Amino acid sequence: xxxxxxxxxxAKGVFAxxxxxxxxxxxxxxxxxxxxxxxKELPSLMADVYRAFEVSKPKTMATLTVKTAAAKAETPVEKxxxxxxxxxxxxxxxxVLETDWGKWRPRTVAELKGAxxxxxxxxxxxxxxxxxxxxxxxxxxxxxxxxxGCVYILAEEEVLA
Length: 161
What we know:
It contains 7 helices and 6 strands; from the N terminus they run E-E-E-H-H-H-H-H-E-H-H-E-E. The chain is α+β, with helices and mostly antiparallel strands.
């Protein structure tokens, strides 16, 4: 099932349109006119994109069973990254997301708050939410909604050829 996730102006003169197909997502961005022209060609493009994703799907599946009773309780030191001193909440969030832990997968607000707390940094939830929103608006981090809530990851610098 195809579902439009986002179509918005991200920066002056740049227009982005994102489509999600199952577990995969495709984003088209550029000048508004170019993106809208490409969207008109979307039905034929999506068939190609779908075939490309089908090729990359794993052919075999594995089932993993985890016993929660036998699992060790992780300490915050093991679970979260260690960061050096920071000047602000925003700086702390960026440093956490720059670690392997932050790059491995997008993180929820609760995970980010836990990582900051593990480093001795305690920011109120509203402060953290405001800082995350500001970093999203500045284009420093990216946010999208999942079943678990909003997740955040560092924004990648795009190189135009």
